[in-house]
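G.,

No rush on this.
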Amino acid sequence: MSGKLMKLLLLGSLVVLVLGVLPPVLAQDDMMGDIVVEDPGLYPEGVEYDADGGRFLITSLARGTVTEVFDDGTFNEFIADDDIISAIGIQIDAEGGRILVAGPDPGAGAATSEATMDVSAMLGIYDLESGERLHLVDCGALLPEGAPHFANDIAVDGDGNAYLTDSYSPVIYKVDTDGNAEIFLQDDTFTGEGFSLNGIDYHPDGYLLAVTLNTGNVYKIPLDSPQDFTQVEMEAPLLGADGINLTADGDLIVNVGTFAGEDPPMIVRLSSDDDWASASVTGSVETEFNVTTTALRDGEVYALFGHLELLFGGDPSRETFEITHIAFDDM
């Protein structure tokens, strides 16, 4: 296991500080297993819903693949790219007919190696209909050799530009529709122990929202002046913040994982009435397992239970994984 991922596991103890200030939560016992994927050793991390295709697309941290999953639990391997060691974040660009996949090497994939572990920051771009590779972009090459990398999550703006977070270096990369990459934002604010920059999404008013796992902060980043980013004011940070999703109503769904044994992880809904200068928790749900990412389907939230705590805990034998509808307890 990567030494930095060991540090990530310790963040679970910090999440207790957050849970004490969040509103009451809804137990999740009656929500498990809406769709069960029986594929031993898959260990999915990212999920998106393809409305036109009527399918979920999930990434595999263990295999570096993308699998299409249907409502009855049937599935097919859709993308297998030898240059993606572990597939993490996934973003569908429906207008552009593309799938974008973040490809780091956290040391738990079947193809991991000393040469790539903690230094891989690939962005794979594929045709949404065929799965054919369109571009493979080595974003890590934009930083000096030897810099640590973990390509994590992706957002796509209204012009088709992609934005990729790096959890080990304080950078967000920008990749245009032709596969050309540049550093969009680099700032020491996004440094610290373990994972920093994590989930990211695009707001149609012309900015990005991004979270940091180790500090639990949310940031608003203007597309036209990223250096003028601001921290969203909240009552308390969401330590352990992972994947995020901006809903059509303008709320932000945030997965708060513990990666620890005792305290339950959560999914929270943040709302803002001042264009994300500040935000507050308006809904939450307690989950039995960690949720790295969620997908939006017809305005509803679906959570992916990838059971990655087992994989990183040395037990790669899990056979089933769930995509589950989430109903929030409004506050």
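When you get to it, here's the other one too:
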Amino acid sequence: MASDGHFVPFARVERGGIPESHHLGVAVLADASGKVRARWGDPDAVTFPRSALKPFQAVDLVESGAFDAFGLAEQDLALACASHSGESFHIERVRAWLDLIDCDETCLVCGAVLPGHKETAEAHLRAGLPPSPVFYNCSGKHCGFLTNARHLGLPLAGYDVPDHPLQQRYRTVLSRFLGRDASVLPWSRDDCMLPAPALPMRDMATAMARFTEEAVAEGSAAPLRILAAMANYPLLVAGTRGVPQILNETLGSRAVAKPGAEGYLAVFLPAERLGLALKAADGNARAADCALAAILGQLGLIDAATEAELAERLAPPPRDSRGTPVGRIVAALPPAER
């Protein structure tokens, strides 16, 4: 990530009215032409969107015909874009999807883990069950890649390798939305084993705006269906009390959220045909979540009362060991530069 000079205050944690922690970050709102409509910090800061790119990774699953060829449901498309919490309704769909394409968990290259959802993980351990790749938060995305491989007659093995045809197809899709060759971006590897690009915040926001432009103005089937699936099934995109669900309950399909790792957050704004990308400098998601409410308020998308309610839901107050609130998390954003 770029140096601290690229960041602005995002959020502050207070305990007993005294500041205890400070979070910095950067956020960019852009349109499909690449124009930055509003910014908080440096729009040219470069970082990894990580899982925030999953909607783009799902495009070829639809456009290749694989999604429809296997008779998959809209819920599965939401799951292909998910960073899920491993709740039972996630895992049942992942396992059913693998069965449908004649695969099992050994086909998934992501590592074996326990469910991310606390109560589900505790029940899993009490039952004496082992970790599994199906619990990995990216397993839905991996099902999408395996489905595409089956449909296109490509090898399942090595679908995580950068020169695998599926990854080449993904780079072509990403290039389309970036408006330049994605292969020249810096690439590393995500924790789930798939290739992961780094790009400027303005480029991510622009790509998201073009995604919404294709969906709304051009009626392009893949972006339209992907955004609809994410809006209709936000619980599948993350999980109970996740940002997609909370934001959906406030704004419906006007704002479609996709969290990434390390405090990255992407919000598609289809009605405005804009993309909003946020990144907490220290990787703490609570900073980006809290800042999001303030940004939506500054943009006039929510009123002051809704902003306050949304901020408390997105970034609940810190609590002591008995569950009693002992402070608060408040936005510290400056006014947007335009």
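Residues 49 and 260 are 6 Å apart (CA to CA). The mean pLDDT is 96.

Enjoy the weekend,
O.
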